[in-house]
Design a protein that fits this description.
This protein has about 90 residues and is mainly α. The protein contains six helices and two strands; from the N terminus they run H-E-H-E-H-H-H-H.
Length: about 90
Amino acid sequence: VTNCLWHQYGVRSILGIQGGYNGLSDPEEYTPIDLQPSVVREIHHKGGSILKAGRGGFDAKKICDNLEAMGINMLFTVGGDGTQGAAH
């Protein structure tokens, strides 16, 4: 996602939210990571996730308020059925 946004769409401000929905609910505790091609270049060799997995933490109102406060106007969710179901 990072490489596509950067190279194909010219997006230069890409944040990775740590801890899943917990990070969106409490960005002060789960500091977002500035994602650039250099940061994700060799991620597939490391295994796991640089953003750390998260369970729970879904509070739609709090998440929407935080997204607005952080100036985020587009959100891509990456995960399984639970992640996608909550995002929908």
